[in-house]
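Subject: Re: docking follow-up (fe (ii) ion)

Dear J.,

Thanks for your patience while I sorted out the input files. As discussed at Tuesday's group meeting, I've set up the holo structure prediction with fe (ii) ion included as the bound ligand rather than trying to dock it afterwards. The sequence and the ligand SMILES I used are pasted below, so you can double-check that they match what you have on your end before we go further.
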Amino acid sequence: MAILNIPDRGITIRDLLEIKSVLNSHGIFLEKWKATLPLKDSDTQETILEAYAHELKPFMEKNGFTTADVINVHKDTPNIEMIRGKFLKEHTHSEDEVRFFVDGEGLFWFHLKDDTVINVLCEKGDFLSVPKGFKHWFDLAPKYHVKAIRIFTNVEGWVANYTDSGIDARYNP
Ligand SMILES: [Fe+2]
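The structure tokens for the complex came back this morning:
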């Protein structure tokens, strides 16, 4: 279940409808997806994509996405801190960032237009779509375990364009 935090105001929201409403007002979409097959740790990318095809395919067709893959990052992944560091600085993308959390968790940080910073802890079953150009960063810590479906229109579009604002340093542990 996702959790939304507004650290500067000491606000934590756990109610899914309320979280969705806050995010939607900024153009970010959060949904819950359920697998149609029981999944296990050893499942292949194909099995995982099949288990969520009933949600994935209509979403991709409706929004013009052409490619989906599954990333699996865990504590023993080589260069894990380097991988973490890549997404820990504020950046944008030239296409939407769309993720579905199959397992594990990750913390998305969003820098809103009014300069408020919020974070959303995403866990198993959470589907998140972040509009292109939205300032954000992402933390793997403390669990360092994310298995997620990524959806692209163009893999090139998903390069991080760093803002170099330094704002992330005020919030990252
Ligand atoms: Fe990103």
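A couple of observations from a first look. Residues 87, 91, 93, 97, 136, 138, 160 surround fe (ii) ion (CB under 6 Å). DSSP finds four helices and eleven strands in the chain.

Let me know if you'd like me to rerun anything.

Best regards,
T.
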